[in-house]
Amino acid sequence: MAMIERSDTGAVARLTLNAPERMNALSDAMLAALMAELETLAGQDHIRAVIIAGAGKAFCAGHDLNEMTLGRAAADDGQAYFADLFGRCAAVMMAIRALPQPVIAEVHGVAAAAGCQLVASCDMAVAAEGTRFGVNDVNIGLFCSTPMVALSRAVPRKQAFEMLTTGAFVNADRACEIGLINRAVAPDALQSATMELAQTVADKLGGAVRIGKRAFYEQLEMGVEQAYLHTGDVMTQNMMMAETAEGIEAFLSKRSPNWSQ
């Protein structure tokens, strides 16, 4: 059974974490499979939006604690394994950010610890009402320090700190209020609502969205003056694209643009 199931609908790729018996935990195999899919998608310009979902009753329960326990059997009590594991997980999260296409998390059931990190790392997220989000490993004596990186960049710092230090879960409505997800929808509408958002993005000029996503994250790390200088350069490059000129001409002529995408 494949750890990741991929299905494409037009320009939208859907990646489904497929280890429902383990609540789609980010095991060594799952991280490797997800990274491989992301590396493939990075070179596929015909795909203009990506959805990450989970099979079974949960989106993702975080790291595989059984594997982590086995890692302690090494002579160094697992120190090298843990360092490598958290490094590989961080690389996957950074690959989502670096992916040219926008990535949307389709979340249901539970998104816990590194699973919540995965949601926070995606560019957007849609969740079913009743979904629970938490960075709860503090309850077992492990502070979610690596999930904290994505979470603290997705929600206000006081909300992130409360989640990290109390281990408490928030529901989908609260996750929407604090900005962890874009919207909460009825469970039976989750897949269609996520696909609608993905298709809306995929219908845009792919080249413009690709350079825009890259610039979005680049400017967040800059001061305001530098950010304006950088994004001015990006917009200038965007204006030089033939398909952008076509889009402007189509708008002025009150017709649909003729984009090859």
From TrEMBL:
The keyword Lipid metabolism applies. InterPro entries: ClpP/crotonase-like_dom_sf, Enoyl-CoA_hydra/iso, Enoyl-CoA_hydra_C, Mitochondrial_ECH-domain. Coiled coil: none annotated. Keywords: Fatty acid metabolism, Lipid metabolism, Transit peptide. Gene3D superfamilies: 2-enoyl-CoA Hydratase, Chain A, domain 1, Lyase 2-enoyl-coa Hydratase, Chain A, domain 2. GO terms for molecular function: hydro-lyase activity. One of its GO terms (biological process) is fatty acid metabolic process. May play a role in fatty acid biosynthesis and insulin sensitivity. PANTHER family: ENOYL-COA HYDRATASE DOMAIN-CONTAINING PROTEIN 3, MITOCHONDRIAL (PTHR43602:SF1), PTHR43602. Belongs to the enoyl-CoA hydratase/isomerase family. This is Enoyl-CoA hydratase domain-containing protein 3, mitochondrial. The lineage of its organism: Bacteria, Pseudomonadati, Pseudomonadota, Alphaproteobacteria, Rhodobacterales.
